[in-house]
Design goal:
With 278 residues, this protein is of the alpha/beta class. Helix content is 50%, strand content 19%. The protein contains 11 helices and 9 strands. Helix 6 links the parallel strand 5 and strand 6 (174-180). It starts with a helix and ends in a 6-residue tail after the last helix. It binds ligand C2E and calcium ion (CA) (3 copies). The site of ligand C2E has 24 residues, from strand 2, helix 2, helix 3 and strand 6. Ligand C2E binds next to strand 2, helix 2, helix 3 and strand 6.
Length: 278
């Protein structure tokens, strides 16, 4: 029994060491990843439900580590936040996404906006608004083509967040509230934040046909968004019956595997753009 306990202890410490060393590998790797070309941006279409039009995309970061393979943003974004690396990394992502979208516009496609996720740590940085201005200047993208996705966690600091949001809005940038329904005191944010769009979290969409409660939540969010004159997007739509429900509730747009997973930029061009006559 003593032996067993010993092994268990050893196994436990091994597991901790592995976690720590993986974290260290990730952290050192992350500092160099963008320069090494290991970081890429994928794009997921935002589909207009009434027409099927695809004129907007969400940028989602991907990290392909030389040894570890594909690392999920759910693993490295929190680490990047903890180490504040998200500030330069986030700016790099914004720059990359704006450059791509500008290139698509320059090809003559009729497009609406590019949505870029902004972490609360990035948003809390006093240099954030200036860094957005700088990226727009450098890339030449007009602000009306940029949509920033913020989660409710940005509001840990409403007294700084709200003036920031107004400043961005005054520049012509759009603001979406991401993962709506998963945070708390959401209703205050709706009232106080200068928002354009609400994004219904995929956790509600994915169980609408199993849970009458989730259906009621989705129904209520859509209804509220329509009454507040906000654009509303459902995330994580995978099946035709989920889409049918959203059509019946008059939801404006959706994202999800039903249309497309996030894909590299060249797949967006081939799948979603008509050739434009020169
Ligand atoms: P999010 O912003 O809520 O992004 C939506 C996530 O749902 C993405 O996961 C997307 O690939 C996934 N998804 C899209 N359609 C479907 C579907 O039909 N079914 C299912 N099951 N999933 C779907 P991903 O790309 O792994 O990103 C996870 C999270 O990481 C994002 O959640 C966001 O919070 C964060 N993230 C991703 N890229 C960035 C970034 O550039 N900056 C920051 N700050 N965070 C990012
Ligand atoms: Ca998002
Ligand atoms: Ca989301
Ligand atoms: Ca999410």
């Amino acid at each position: 029994a003593k032996q067993e306990g010993g092994n268990q202890y050893q196994f436990f410490t091994m597991e901790i060491n592995e976690t720590i060393s993986r974290k260290m590998t990730l952290e050192t790797g992350l500092r160099k990843a963008a320069a090494l070309g290991e970081i890429e941006i994928y794009y997921q279409p935002q589909v207009v439900i009434g027409t099927g039009d695809v004129k907007s995309f969400e940028a989602l970061v991907r990290w392909n580590h030389r040894e570890l393979g594909v690392v999920s943003p759910l693993d490295f974004i929190p680490l990047a936040e903890e180490t504040k690396l998200i500030i330069p990394l986030g700016k790099w992502i914004l720059h990359k996404a704006c450059t791509q979208f500008k290139a698509w516009l320059d090809e003559g496609h009729d497009l609406c906006h590019i949505s870029v996720n902004i972490s609360a740590v990035q948003f809390d940085d006093p240099g954030f608004v200036d860094s957005v201005k700088q990226v727009l200047n450098e890339t030449g993208l007009e602000p009306r083509y940029l949509d920033l996705e913020l989660t409710e966690s940005v509001v840990q600091n409403p007294q700084t967040a709200i003036p920031f949001m107004h400043e961005l809005k005054a520049m012509g940038i759009k603001i979406s509230l991401d993962d709506f329904g998963t945070g708390y005191s959401s209703l205050n944010y709706l009232k106080d934040f200068p928002l354009d769009t609400l994004k219904i979290d995929k956790s509600f969409i994915q169980t609408i046909h199993q849970s009458p409660k989730d259906m009621a939540v989705v129904d209520t969010i859509i209804h509220m968004a329509l009454n507040l004159n906000l654009n509303v997007i459902a995330e994580g739509v995978e099946t035709p019956s989920q889409l049918d429900y959203l059509v019946s509730r008059k939801c404006h747009q959706y994202q999800g595997y039903l249309c497309s997973a996030p894909v590299p930029h060249d797949q967006i061009s081939t799948r979603f753009f008509q050739p434009v006559k020169g």
